[in-house]
Design a protein that fits this description.
By secondary structure, the chain is mainly alpha-helical. It has a domain of 130 residues. Helix content is 70%, strand content 3%. The protein contains six helices and two strands; from the N terminus they run H-E-E-H-H-H-H-H. Strands 1-2 form a two-stranded antiparallel ribbon. A hairpin with a 5-residue loop joins strand 1 and strand 2. The protein starts with a helix and ends with a helix.
Length: 190
């Protein structure tokens, strides 16, 4: 009886009904063919034009902050759009100004997606061009955020608070992008 239970416990059926033995008592077995072993060869990152590996040059903190900033921008976008809708219903909002504010808010969201793409792509590929584009787009998004902070038709205290937080995120992001760019250009000289 015990042998029968052990034999049954050592076997399992996969979804398609094929018989596959399972390891017993911590016995780990691997069934690999020569083809699978050859496919599992580790591929190294391509070397930079200056030579040598460049695994330490990408900035994980920069990538994390870029993603965190984009997450906050989703909150900022929805909050600002809600505030604009509320202001247009409660206050006398000129229709031209309403169109500009909504259009600039959507432009800010689109530019932030471009900033995130260029920042992450630039650090992963260690490309100076992508990080330069990220810095340029970050400067543009800072100007748009300052517009929503000070120059839109009606500025409320909530606008000031959420825009100030977004500006600080963009400032940290720009500093980290600049330091990553400096690190990449120094590694090219070596």
């Amino acid at each position: 009886m015990v042998g029968h239970q052990r034999q049954r416990a050592s076997r399992a059926f996969t979804v398609v009904g094929q018989f596959t033995p399972l390891p017993l008592d911590g016995d780990v077995r691997r069934f690999e063919s020569k083809e699978n072993k050859q496919k599992k060869k580790v591929k190294m990152a391509p070397s930079r034009p200056g030579g040598g590996s460049s695994g330490v040059l990408s900035s994980v903190i920069f990538q994390l902050l870029a993603r965190l900033t984009s997450g906050y921008l989703a909150f900022y976008f929805l909050s600002t759009l809600s505030l604009i809708i509320w202001k247009s219903l409660v206050l006398s909002y000129p229709s031209e100004a309403l169109a500009w504010d909504v259009g600039l808010l959507f432009l800010l969201a689109a530019l932030d997606l471009l900033r995130l793409f260029c920042g992450v792509r630039g650090t992963l590929t260690e490309s100076e061009l992508y990080i330069l584009v990220n810095l340029f787009v970050t400067g543009t998004t800072i100007l748009l955020t300052v517009y929503f902070l000070a120059w839109q038709t009606y500025v409320m205290r909530a606008d000031v608070i959420i825009s100030s937080v977004l500006l600080s995120f963009y400032g940290f992001d720009g500093v980290l992008a600049l330091s990553t760019l400096v690190r990449l250009t120094r590694s090219d000289k070596d």
